[in-house]
């Protein structure tokens, strides 16, 4: 008599997480259900959106830097990049390009017209410069931090 | 100006330092091993937290679908009370014809906030609460396909809500930023010409919630397609997952369009574009773009509650869902048709009558799959072994309200009727039967049904039934009175109704408004009972003896989520595996002797079919 025969002799429990082949070394060492980055990504996106659109330049620069850094961080944590700094620098360069494009939609890309537009407090030009500024901070910051360490978790940098 | 910018720069610097400090503190979290702390809710009904950081940090850093589901739920309920408080103020104002407790501007602000809050900050997130928590359990997945994106999608919502409500916080400060007065439809030219920056903040907040919903939808589609367990296929995928899959597809096509339209409106407001200007793309373009999103949004909000009812109703009817396949087909049909009906919101705008007729035809056609669902629910209950628990009562109330809300919608889909009733309280009554009578009712039913899994405790049944009956009575008093008000010609969106008696009979209109106000306060009182019940039961409710608080095993209705719960309880209790199996089967006894066995056979309703083999047969 087999009273409790089961078709599946190894019942699944959710505590015993099967390891995904895509897991990174960082995840295998530590907790699998926590990440600090999602909150920061959301904050970065929110602050940068409000800052750029409402023309509050400190918020625009800070928010975009935060967004770029956190995207690089979460991408690294998820194992899509080996080091976060190269992506952060690349995103910084993209921001510079976008900012320059924003400026170019309003004035020719020459010194005099740009200075005149800034002097006239042209809203779109100033927004473009805030994006360029954020891109420069991200790119230079990434280069500096990258030069200081290899970006691994053990370096003490939030990765 | 320069001083302000410098001050903001300094504040931004402080903010970034705070973020850096937060991240630096997180550096050590991998060594945290709290075994009991960290939960704001005591011993929840599930395990698996041993690897999480302690205290509030856990909730800020979690990517666990169950935790995120709880966060969605708490967020949605805060929004529910905000939107409810707004409408109670409005209903108090409408109890008499004149301006008695507020002016028109504040009424308009409350109207706008109520609509947007209930649809975007309560409706969508409360559905996401259930789907985040239970879809992975129902399909046998470990978690969502993209857990971090899941967390990002949630964390975009609180700042979105703050921006949407910002005007209410800043108005007392005298900054010149007031609450938006655009109504939730944000029709141009009204919304384009209000100079108030509070409108910009609201639009930005809405944009963030749209990004959040889109990220969530992509995640659910990927999860249901790629993360199903070995035993779950398309044939036995549960009905709730089907509705979430359909809803996610609708979100994928609808919300990016809303985001684009919002950006166009922001550009019109701030950068002198002319997308919705009379001399440009025309104000009617906004209505087309908005309703191309807006009508699918109705089904984005209502399909998952229909799935919840299709899932819960059979459990207390003692029968499988009648016509499962056709309920799935009707879900898909509604999803497809929902993109072909948007102009029925614009019948009175002067659009081409031939186009108008085609939209009328498609709108009427939606009645067919809707009726398929309704008759299948009724047939499921027919001759069933009904148990009138609180979740079941809410499901039955849902169907009852859908009959009224749905049929009034069929009338509105007919052009001649719509031209008479357009912009009256009839429309308000119709869609509140849907959003309150259906969506909120299904949400409440599901909250009660799954309360034992989330908390490991049982709620207070008497309070739950009081909650249902007061909600049901209040809903029907309020919104039926609105239907009648519409027949009398009372226009919607007004803070006052001191009009000429030739337009509508003022005495009757006043009486009906007072009836609606009384009903609204009954609904509000019912929700207070519910809130008390939830909070007190979460902390002090009786702990469950076993994993089958609804006695679903008796009818072979023990769903996959309760099977999972049983494994958690077994792990927490430390055994008893000889009596209860981890896959949800149980040993049946007959007179104290083990007499049979149960084999697991996943079905489309998520339960298992009993295959009892008698011992004396062997």
UniProtKB/TrEMBL annotation, chain B:
Residues 59-551 form the Cytochrome oxidase subunit I profile domain. It is found in: Membrane. Residues 571-618 are annotated as: Disordered. Residues 600-618 have a biased composition (Basic and acidic residues). GO terms for biological process: electron transport coupled proton transport; oxidative phosphorylation; respiratory electron transport chain. It is a multi-pass membrane protein. Keywords: Copper, Electron transport, Heme, Iron, Membrane, Metal-binding, Oxidoreductase, Respiratory chain, Translocase, Transmembrane, Transmembrane helix, Transport. This is cytochrome-c oxidase. The gene is ctaD.
């Amino acid at each position: 008599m087999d009273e409790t025969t089961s078709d599946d002799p190894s019942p699944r429990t959710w505590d015993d997480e099967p390891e995904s082949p895509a897991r990174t070394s960082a995840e295998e060492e530590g907790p699998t259900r926590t990440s600090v980055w999602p909150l920061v990504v959301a904050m970065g996106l929110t602050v940068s959106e409000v800052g750029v659109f409402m023309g509050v330049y400190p918020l625009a620069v800070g928010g975009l830097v935060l967004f770029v850094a956190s995207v690089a961080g979460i991408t690294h944590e998820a194992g899509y990049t080996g080091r976060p700094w190269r992506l952060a620098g690349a995103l910084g360069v993209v921001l510079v390009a976008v900012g320059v494009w924003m400026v170019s939609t309003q004035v020719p890309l020459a010194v005099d017209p740009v200075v005149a537009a800034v002097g006239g407090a042209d809203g779109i030009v100033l927004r473009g410069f805030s994006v360029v500024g954020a891109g420069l901070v991200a790119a230079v910051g990434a280069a500096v931090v990258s030069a200081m360490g290899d970006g691994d978790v053990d370096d003490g940098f939030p990765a | 100006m320069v001083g302000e910018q410098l001050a903001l720069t300094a504040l931004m610097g402080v903010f970034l330092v705070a973020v850096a400090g937060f991240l630096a503190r997180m550096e050590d979290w991998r060594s945290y091993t709290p075994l009991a702390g960290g939960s704001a809710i005591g011993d929840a009904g599930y395990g698996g937290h041993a690897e999480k950081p302690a205290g509030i940090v856990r909730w800020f850093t979690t990517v666990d679908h169950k935790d995120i589901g709880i966060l969605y739920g708490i967020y949605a309920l805060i929004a529910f009370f905000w939107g409810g408080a707004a409408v109670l103020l409005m209903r108090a104002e409408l109890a008499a014809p004149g301006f008695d407790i507020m002016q028109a501007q504040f009424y308009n602000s409350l109207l706008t906030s109520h609509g947007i809050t209930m649809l975007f900050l309560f409706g969508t997130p409360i559905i996401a609460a259930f789907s985040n928590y239970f879809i992975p359990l129902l399909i046998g997945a470990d978690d969502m396909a993209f857990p971090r994106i899941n967390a990002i999608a949630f964390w975009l919502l609180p700042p979105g809500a703050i921006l949407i409500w910002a005007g209410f916080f800043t108005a007392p400060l005298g900054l010149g930023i007031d609450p938006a007065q655009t109504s939730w439809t944000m029709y141009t030219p009204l919304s384009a010409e209000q100079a108030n920056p509070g409108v910009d903040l609201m639009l930005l907040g809405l944009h963030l919630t749209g990004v959040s919903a889109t990220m969530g939808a992509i995640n659910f589609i990927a999860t249901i397609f790629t993360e199903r367990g070995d035993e779950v296929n398309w044939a036995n995928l549960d009905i709730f997952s089907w509705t979430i899959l359909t809803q996610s597809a609708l979100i994928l096509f609808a919300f990016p369009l809303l985001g684009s339209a919002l950006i166009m409106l922001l550009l019109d407001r701030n950068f002198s574009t002319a997308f919705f200007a009379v001399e440009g793309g025309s104000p009617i373009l906004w209505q087309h773009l908005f309703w191309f999103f807006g009508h699918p949004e109705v089904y984005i909000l209502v399909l998952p509650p229909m799935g919840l009812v299709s899932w819960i109703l059979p459990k207390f009817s003692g029968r499988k869902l009648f016509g499962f396949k056709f309920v799935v087909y009707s879900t898909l049909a509604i999803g497809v048709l929902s993109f072909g009906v948007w102009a029925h919101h614009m019948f009175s705008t002067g659009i081409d009558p031939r186009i108008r007729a085609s939209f009328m035809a498609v709108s009427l056609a939606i009645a067919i799959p809707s009726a398929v669902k309704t008759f299948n629910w009724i047939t499921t209950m027919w001759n069933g072994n009904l148990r009138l628990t609180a979740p079941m009562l809410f499901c039955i109330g849902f169907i009852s309200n859908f009959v009224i809300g749905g049929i009034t919608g069929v009338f509105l889909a007919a052009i001649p009727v719509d031209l008479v009733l357009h912009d009256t309280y009839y429309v308000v009554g119709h869609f509140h039967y849907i959003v309150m009578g259906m969506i909120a009712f299904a949400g409440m039913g599901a909250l009660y049904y799954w309360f034992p899994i989330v908390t490991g405790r049982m709620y207070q049944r008497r309070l739950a039934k009081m909650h249902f009956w007061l909600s049901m009575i209040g809903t029907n008093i309020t919104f039926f009175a609105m239907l009648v008000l519409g027949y009398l010609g009372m226009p919607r969106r007004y803070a006052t109704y001191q009009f000429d008696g030739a337009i509508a009979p003022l005495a009757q209109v006043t009486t009906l408004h007072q009836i609606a106000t009384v009903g609204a306060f009954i609904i509000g009182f019912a929700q207070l009972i519910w809130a008390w019940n939830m909070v007190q039961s979460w902390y002090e409710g009786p702990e469950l003896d076993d994993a089958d608080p609804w006695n679903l095993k008796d009818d072979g209705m023990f769903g996959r989520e309760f099977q999972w719960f049983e494994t958690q309880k077994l792990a927490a209790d430390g055994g008893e595996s000889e009596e209860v199996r981890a896959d949800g089967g149980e040993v049946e006894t007959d007179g104290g002797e083990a007499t049979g066995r149960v084999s697991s056979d996943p079905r489309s309703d998520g339960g298992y079919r009993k295959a009892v083999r008698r011992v004396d047969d062997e």
